[in-house]
Amino acid sequence: MRAVRVVVRGRVQGVGFRAWVVREAMALGVAGEVSNRPDGSVEVEGVGAIPALERLVAALRQGPSHAHVEQLVEEWFERAHAPHGFHITH
Asked: Do residues 75 and 14 lie in contact, with contact meaning Cβ atoms separated by under 8 Å?
């Protein structure tokens, strides 16, 4: 399965970013997880169809209204199995 890991930097913690990612990913049919990183960034890993993953990455570039995305780094890779659902991890 195709997967993408995205690290989003900017004002992305404390603004509902992770909950917003869950809603966006689920609407697109993408499985995976999102978590805050100690450096203040947010990491997203999504697994699914390439068009859905591309739409998720495009949405991450914008973020929710209270966030301010300054930088986005994406890494595409293959994953043997897709996780079930999309979750916030700590």
From this structure: no
83 burial type by CB count under 10 A (0-12 exposed, 13-18 middle, 19+ buried): middle
**2-80 classified as CATH 3.30.70.100:** yes
Query: Which one is catalytic: 2, 18, 37, 79?
Result: 18
The residue extents of the domains of the chain are 2-80
pLDDT confidence of residue 90: 82
User: Model-level pTM greater than 0.90?
Assistant: yes
Q: Distance between terminal CA atoms of the chain?
A: 24
Indicate if 79 belongs to the active site: no
- Residue 74 near residue 6 (C-beta atoms within 8 A): yes
Q: Is the pLDDT of residue 40 over 90?
A: yes
The single residue of 36, 37, 55, 79 carrying the catalytic annotation is: 36
**Closest by alpha carbon to 17, among 48, 53, 41?**
41
